[in-house]
Design brief:
It is a multi-pass membrane protein. The structure is a single chain. By secondary structure, this protein is of the alpha+beta class. Helices cover 63% and strands 11% of the residues. The protein has 19 helices and 10 strands. Helix 10 runs antiparallel to helix 13 and helix 11 runs antiparallel to helix 12.
Length: 655
């Protein structure tokens, strides 16, 4: 019964999306004004119906209703409840339902609260959101029904991929989807502004919170996904340039550029064309990522390999949505006025340079991701990995970091470099000192060397905008910028240290034997069997000591065997200190009775994820600052309007 209710809610939501599209389109005409008035309430109800359908899916997963095909294929009665629920979006159909749910709720929220835009632009925006949603509703209902029934009902489910039965990955996809859908709202705002030719500060102020929120969720999702891959997959790396990893990175790069452009447009009425173009590009990258993950052309632990028919459906949606948006942009770009002018030496100029560099990195990642797929379709096997991505990205990332350090100290409109030159003395000295120290004490490759010296300089430069200002009265948006830029420096130092100074050791040891990795002594104390709710494992007890006089600590890496579905996994064990992380993985037993251990000592590697969280925190502070400022302005405007109405009424009474 619950499944049928969920399916019925989906059909109704799809019908309302069609009505929203029709009403929003006709509402732009004089004759359709009456129909335009129903668009906002229709958008709200559509979002509620989609949310109800998703809760129905969560319920059938929570009770393990095996008569629902999706539950039977992706759940098991013995799984812990949290992984039963996570199974609802740990598959193709469920993740797409989550997508349309967040999109519907976001559209309803926009319709409910947004009052800053002219009504025509708002109608066009909601029509654009409905157009995108309608394609995904059609995809779900016609080819990916999440509530399809099974007959006969199986005795037990097949279970969720054991690699996905992890708390980190249970929350990783929802955060990414929230980011993707936030970009869909920005896309709809851009389409609405293009349709009505009303690209200006009001449009940017309406779009900015959605871009910020999307960027925050993408940052958290990418950070969580990186850490999950690091500790769960057992290979000791935090980023592999996997196409599915790139599928989340590309929207983030575009959203970062969009975030800066929309802020300039909102505050200074500049970069109008940049903002609209990036609004389209950012969501385009989300759509490209959706196609890569769900088309079946990739094989990855992250990907949902589906049949080619579904992949063709997604490709058609991508062509319609993005092709249509780019066509509209090409037709209307000439009508978008330039906006306020500024000198190249200004904060706006620095942001334009950074946007160009970000777009260049985006192009490099996009080419490196798609080229092997195109080559394979033509009959050639090509591998593109870190040897391409790292140096090619660095060509643009290094100057971008320099501009990132200097830009926040520049004035708006026009500035003189000599004015800020004295502020850059200390960061420049830190870069020189750090570079000299690295040359003197270590043999570091060029890219990690540049990352370390620039990271140290950027860390200092990022706090310079606080100099000479009253910190208690400083806007939250400025704090957000400082924290986010400092987070980039922290993450950069962590990435570079991990690359430059990591020590790896693969050994075969007997019980009681001690081996050395970096400053750590590691003793295999014993191997013992353990059991979990839906797995059994062999667990190694490692006694580890930092240096000759360090305290002995225990690590317990495991080799697990899941039975639903049958699969073996390696569960790494991590020991974190202030200066790095010890990473241990248990392998198999050899014929001579020795056990394989894979050990890493990774100096400062936790800074990668600490930096990612600081970047997201900076975005959150900026979002709170912008929202509170907008609310305050709205309240002031309402009070002024009420005062004027009262004065007019008083004059009328006297007359």
């Amino acid at each position: 019964m619950i499944a049928e209710l969920g399916l019925a809610a989906l059909w109704l939501a799809a019908a309302l999306a069609g009505l929203q599209l029709l009403g929003g389109s006709l509402g732009l005409t004089t004759k359709g004004a009456a129909l335009g008035r129903v668009v906002r309430p229709v958008a709200v109800v559509q979002g509620l119906l989609a949310l109800f359908a998703f809760f129905c899916l969560l319920y059938v997963f929570a009770i393990t209703d095996l008569s629902v095909k999706l539950v039977a294929l992706n759940s098991h009665s013995l799984k812990p409840l949290v992984f039963k629920i996570a199974g609802a979006w740990g598959n193709h159909e469920g993740s797409m339902l989550l997508w349309v749910t967040v999109m519907g709720v976001a559209g309803g929220f926009v319709a409910l609260i947004e009052r800053r835009l002219p009504e025509r632009t708002m109608l066009a925006t909601l029509a654009g959101q409905a157009f995108v949603s309608l394609g995904f509703y059609a995809f779900l209902l016609l080819s990916s029904n999440p509530f399809e029934r099974l007959s006969p009902v199986p005795a037990e489910g097949q279970g969720l991929n054991p690699l996905l039965q992890d708390l980190g990955l249970a929350f990783h996809p929802p955060t990414l989807y929230l980011g993707y859908v936030g970009l869909s709202v920005a896309f709809s705002f851009a389409i609405g502004a293009l349709v009505t030719r009303e690209v200006g500060p009001a449009f940017a102020r309406a779009m900015r919170p959605w871009v910020l929120a999307a960027w925050i969720f993408l940052t958290v999702g990418i950070t969580a996904g990186s850490y999950w891959a690091y500790y769960e997959l057992g290979w000791g790396g935090w980023w592999f340039w996997d196409p599915v990893e790139n599928a989340s990175l590309m929207p983030w790069l575009a959203a970062t550029a969009l975030l800066h452009s929309v802020s300039v447009l909102a505050a200074r009425d500049a970069l109008r064309t940049w903002t609209v173009m990036l609004g389209v590009v950012a969501f385009s990258m989300s759509m490209v990522g959706t196609f890569l993950v769900r088309s079946g052309i990739l094989t990855s632990v992250h990907a949902f390999a589906v049949d080619p028919e579904r992949g063709s459906f997604i490709l058609a949606l991508l062509a319609i949505n993005i092709g249509g948006a780019l066509t509209l942009f090409a037709l209307r770009a000439a009508t978008v006025s330039e906006g306020a002018r500024f000198a190249p030496m200004s904060r706006e100029g620095a942001l334009v340079i950074n946007n160009v560099l970000l777009c260049a990195i985006l192009g490099i990642v996009l080419f490196g991701t798609l080229y092997p797929l195109v080559a394979e379709a033509l009959g050639a096997q090509v591998s593109v990995g870190p040897p391409y991505f790292n140096p090619m990205s660095a060509l643009f990332a290094v100057p971008m970091l320099v501009v990132l350090a200097v830009g926040p100290m520049l004035r708006w409109r026009r500035d003189d470099f000599m004015r800020i030159g004295k502020n850059l003395v200390i960061p420049a000295m830190l870069v020189v000192v750090m570079g000299g120290a690295l040359v003197a004490v270590a043999d570091v490759a060029l890219l990690p060397f540049l990352g370390l010296v620039l990271g140290v300089g950027l860390a200092w430069a990022s706090v310079l905008p606080l100099r000479g200002r009253n910190l208690r009265r400083l806007p939250l948006a400025v704090w957000g910028m400082v924290v986010a830029h400092f987070g980039i420096a922290v993450a950069l130092v962590g990435m570079s240290s991990e690359s430059a100074f990591s020590t790896e050791k693969l050994v075969a040891v007997e019980v009681g034997e001690i081996t050395q990795v970096g400053p750590w002594g590691v003793k295999l104390d014993r191997i013992e069997p353990v059991a979990g709710p839906n797995w059994t494992a062999l667990e190694a007890r490692l006694l580890v000591r930092y240096g000759p006089d360090g305290k002995v600590t225990r690590l317990t890496p495991q080799s697990r065997t899941f039975w639903a579905p049958p699969q073996n996994t390696s569960e790494s064990a991590l020991l974190t200190r202030w200066n790095g992380q010890l990473y241990a993985v248990l392998g198999g037993e050899g014929e001579d009775g020795r056990w394989q251990l894979r050990l890493w000592w990774k100096p400062l590697v936790p800074l990668i994820w600490l930096g990612g969280l600081l970047i997201a925190l900076g975005g959150l502070l900026a979002l709170l600052g912008r929202v509170t400022t907008d609310v305050r302005r709205s309240v002031q405007s309402d009070r002024i309007a009420e005062r004027r109405e009262g004065e007019e009424k008083l004059r009328e009474d006297r007359a």
